[in-house]
Amino acid sequence: MAGLSDDLRLLADGLSVGVIRLDLDLMVRYANPAAHVFAGRPAGGLVGRSLMEAFIDRRIEELAETARRSGSASGELTLRSADGLSLVVRARRTSDGDATWLTLEDVSELRRLQRIRREFVDNLSHELRTPLTNVSLLAETLVRESEAAGEQIPARMRDRISKIEVETGHLVQMVSELLDLARIESGRPMVLLDVVDLARLAAASADRLRLFAERQGVQLVVEVPAAGVPRVNGAEERLGQVIINLVHNAVKFSPDGGDVTVRVDVQGSTVVVAVEDRGIGIPRGSQDRVFERFYKVDRARVRGGGTGLGLSIARHVIEAHGGRIWVVSEEGRGSTFSFALPIAAPNGTPE
Ligand code: ADP
Predict the structure, then answer these.
(1) What is the spatial distance between Cα 87 and Cα 322, in angstroms, rounded to a whole number?
(2) What is the pLDDT, as a whole number, of residue 204?
(3) Going by CA atoms, what residue is nearest to atom 19 of ligand 1?
(4) Residues within 6 Å of ligand 1 by CB
């Protein structure tokens, strides 16, 4: 009956996912108990009704209609009729075209937890960032003052003060990366409304790290085509963070006296930014894994700490832009991290 054998009916009865079979004119022919619960109807109360009648929501009927026409459709909807229940609905037409099957998955709890996480991260970012920034400014001032005081302050004490400054810097970096990652992963879509000149952004980002590079004895070189590069669409601040992260790593893993080159050019329909170093390199087996959260090739060899989050944030950001990020590296010889972003459509460029 209704195309469901006893065996399958037993299976469908036990599922927490709603299952509905619609006939040609999109009337419910079969619905399992979970579907009845979602619709707030007593057992059997869905059969013979239209989806609109059953759920008092036009979008679910539109999904079924699309699936009947084109084979499949899916979407997420929040039912006002059922205490704001969030359902992921997938609709598929049978191969003979006589029926359409719907599955309804309740994602309300997941969405609720995501919302809580997002709010928690927002609050945490305010609560943590402010005192940390203050501590870091105070540490900076202390370093300056203790240097000015010279011999009046014992060398050991000055050394400790400067270590406090360095460690505070790491803490600030870690908190900011953790929050960035949590924010990106919370599913809030990235706003990609800027028209970005990657050549200019790469030069500006490299400039911000020039002092850090000098301190490490590393020379920073930026190479961009004289004619410039086409614009890309994106979130400029996020892309700047990605470049800074790649350059920061390249400097961090370079030997004293090494050099790091930031190169921007056009390849096919993309603009590619590559950051090349002649540092310690990455073993072949780890090259894919460096983009995972918290992954570090070898904790012992990291100078200056790090969270292992920078590259996973970078990958999130680049993929949210419809781009690709990758590394080519040889152990002991160096690494080149590159990302490619699609060139903006002509109407997206201001020229
Ligand atoms: P972090 O640098 O904070 O540890 P990342 O996600 O930026 O975190 O990098 C992950 C790991 O990838 C690093 O710990 C390091 O082992 C490796 N790595 C990244 N960039 C380079 C590089 N330019 N040269 C060598 N190893 C690198």
Answers:
(1) 27
(2) 96
(3) 249
(4) 245, 249-250, 253, 277, 279-282, 290, 295-297, 302, 306-312, 335
Reading the block at residue 128, the tokens are: 């943590």
For residue 82, the 8-state DSSP code is G
Question: What is the structure's pLDDT at 206?
Answer: 95
Among residues 168, 179, 95, 180, the alpha carbon closest in space to that of 134 is found at 168
Name residue 21's beta-bridge partners.
30, 101
Considering only CA atoms, which residue is closest to atom 12 of ligand 1? 290
Query: What mean pLDDT is predicted for residues 156-170?
Result: 89
Report the amino acid identity of residue 14: G
Please state the φ and ψ torsions of residue 28, each to the nearest 5 degrees.
-70, 125
Task: Identify the CA nearest to 306 among candidates 290, 285, 288, 322.
Answer: 290
**Nearest-5° Cα angle at 245, 243 to 250:** 95
Atom 25, ligand 1: residue with shortest CA distance: 281
**Nearest to residue 4, comparing CAs of 24, 31, 27?**
31
Torsion angle (degrees, nearest 10) of CA 69, 74, 79, 83:
150
* 18-22: strand order across its sheet: 28-31, 18-22, 100-106, 85-93, 72-79
Identify the DSSP state of 12.
Answer: H
Digit-coded pLDDT (tens) for 293-319: 878 887 555 555 677 889 999 999 999
